[in-house]
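Re-run with default settings, no changes from the original entry. Doing this only to confirm the output is reproducible before filing.
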Amino acid sequence: MIKRLKLTKKRLAILVGMPILLSACSDDEVEVIKEVEVIVEVPAPVPEPVDVSYEVTVTNLTNAQPLSPVAVVLHANGHLFSVGEVPSVDLEKLAEGGMNAGLLALGEASATGAGAIAPGASETISVTIEDVTTAKLSVVTMLVNTNDAFSGLDALDLSDFAVGDSWTATAGVYDAGTEVNTEAVGSIPGPADGGEGFNAIRIDTGYVAMHPGVVTVDDGLSDSVLTIQHKFDNPALRIMVTRIE
């Protein structure tokens, strides 16, 4: 008599190596059940985001030039300003009127100073970005007793900064090239005048340059609202950057 074998696979989550079970179904048929292992792939856990944080301390080194609220910007590439280049409208707004919102919006992460920084004073500003250690850092502020002078730092590479690392440098004064340096009544937004801030009409060189300095009434410019106290020499700022996280 010929016996028939029927082979079936049951997909059971049983370890490989279990013995083969034989069960007699009848005199003419034997059922062979092979138990096999089922492998279930479990997705890897998604890592939690890691904060990368920096403290930026800005010190005003001038004699009588308050600084506008500082813009601290972390960005992936590019520049917020560059000597010899045409300034953006956002830079013009800061350099003429101390308005930093446009520059802050250009970054992947940014933070603003709490208010004006008086001569000789300092402020520490914290900024945080998730999972990025290769950002560029820019720091920009206006010297408010001027027409369009600003100071700061452009596109510092942070890729080599480890937690606890610090970097300190000084910064000179730049001219936005968007408003003539008349120092005249009504043209300066700072406390020396209380005049106009940003004006969309550009009347000057049209490019960023190192600032030549202000001309005051003590220099013989009778229309100037500035005195010798408002003059400045480079550097205007000290900037210290520390990675804290």
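The chain has two domains: 4-35, 51-243. Residues 1-24 have pLDDT under 50 and may be disordered.
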